[in-house]
Design brief:
The protein is α+β, with helices and mostly antiparallel strands and 76 residues long. It is 16% helix and 13% strand.
Length: 76
C-alpha cells in the first residue's frame, strides 16, 4: 500500500468502489511505456476503444474455455 493511503484507498487516490473499473486506464496514462491487457467474459460494458489510452488492450476471455494460443506464454 502506498505511503499515506488508508486500508480503503488504492495507490491512485480513490477508494476501491471508485477505482474498480477504471484503474487500468489511469495506470496506463501514468506508465506510457507499458502495455496493459484487460480481459473479461463480455466487453459490452467496456468503454469504446477510442476512449482508451493507446497502451491499453481489451479482449474477451472465458476461463471455462481453453486459453487461446496467442496468450500462452505471453504474460508473466
Amino acid at each position: 500500500m502506498a505511503s499515506g493511503t488508508t486500508a480503503h484507498e488504492y495507490v491512485l487516490g480513490r477508494n476501491y468502489l471508485a477505482s474498480a473499473r477504471i484503474w487500468m486506464t489511469d495506470l496506463a496514462q501514468k506508465m506510457p511505456n507499458c502495455t496493459f491487457h484487460g480481459f473479461d467474459i463480455d466487453l459490452a460494458q467496456a468503454p469504446p476503444r477510442e476512449w482508451l489510452p493507446p497502451n491499453v488492450k481489451l479482449d474477451v476471455l472465458d476461463l471455462f474455455k481453453p486459453l487461446p494460443e496467442e496468450y500462452i506464454g505471453k504474460f508473466e
